């Protein structure tokens, strides 16, 4: 299972677009850069079923903390139902004494660490890229509720697309037997 956190702000991510000749496209929004949603996501691989899963939890207006990761991992365990290997980046919060103790206490969970500064090896980073730079690009969201609904809609769409999830894993170029 790949796990990663991210954040979304209300300022729109503006990408190249098209418009009729002579008509410059405009994107109106409220200048509100301090409102955000933090998120944690996990991409799971079930070798026996050859199926991928995507799990997401949003924290409107908040930050990802040890407590939020603890809750997320415990809820994820109830979905997975068996042992798991966590593939995680080397962010200092993940390597904290408190998190290491938590991981040591979880008999169902083993952690494998990605090299420092290697987001290209974390499949969840491709989910964030797809969500932010394709699904939410050029959207002017007016408040946290709008943003939460937009992120959730993207999540539901991406979660149902096994080929897209497989492409995220393949793009890491990590050796998985069934790909």
Fold blueprint:
Layout: E1 2-9, E2 36-46, E3 51-60, H1 66-80, E4 84-88, H2 97-105, E5 109-113, H3 123-135, H4 144-159, H5 162-172
Parallel strand pairs: 4-5
Antiparallel strand pairs: 1-2, 2-3
Helix pairs in contact: 3-5
3D architecture notes:
This protein is α+β, with helices and mostly antiparallel strands and 179 residues long. The protein has a single domain (2-15, 29-172), classed as Nucleotidyltransferase, domain 5. It is 36% helix and 22% strand. The protein is built from 5 helices and 5 strands. The strands form 2 sheets. Strands 1-2-3 form a 3-stranded antiparallel β-sheet, with helices on both faces. A two-stranded parallel sheet has the order 4-5. The mean pLDDT is 82.
Give short descriptive properties of this protein.
alpha+beta, 5 strands, globular, two-stranded parallel sheet, single chain
How much of the sequence lies in strands comes to 15-25%
Based on helices, strands and strand pairing, what is the structural class? Answer: alpha+beta
Shape: globular
Q: How many domain regions?
A: 1
Overall mean pLDDT score?
A: 82
Largest sheet: 3 strands, antiparallel
Order of helices and strands: EEEHEHEHHH
Q: What does the radius of gyration come to?
A: 18 Å
Number of helices: 5
Topology, number of strands: 5
Record the strand order, biggest sheet. Answer: 1-2-3
């Amino acid at each position: 299972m790949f796990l990663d956190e991210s954040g979304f702000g209300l300022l729109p991510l503006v990408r190249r677009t098209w418009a009729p000749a002579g008509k410059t496209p405009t994107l109106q929004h409220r200048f509100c850069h301090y409102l955000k949603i933090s998120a944690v996501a996990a991409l799971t691989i079930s070798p026996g079923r050859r199926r991928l899963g995507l799990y997401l939890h949003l924290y409107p207006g908040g930050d990802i903390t040890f407590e939020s990761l603890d809750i997320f991992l415990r809820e994820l365990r109830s979905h997975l139902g068996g042992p798991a290997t966590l593939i995680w980046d080397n962010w200092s919060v993940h390597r904290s004494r408190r998190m290491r103790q938590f991981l040591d206490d979880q008999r169902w969970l083993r952690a494998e660490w990605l090299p420092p500064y290697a987001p290209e090896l974390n499949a969840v980073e491709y989910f964030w890229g797809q969500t932010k730079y394709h699904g939410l690009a050029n959207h002017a969201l007016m408040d946290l509720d709008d943003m939460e609904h937009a992120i959730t809609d993207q999540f539901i769409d991406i979660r149902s697309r096994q080929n897209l999830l497989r492409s995220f894993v393949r793009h890491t170029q990590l050796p998985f037997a069934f790909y």
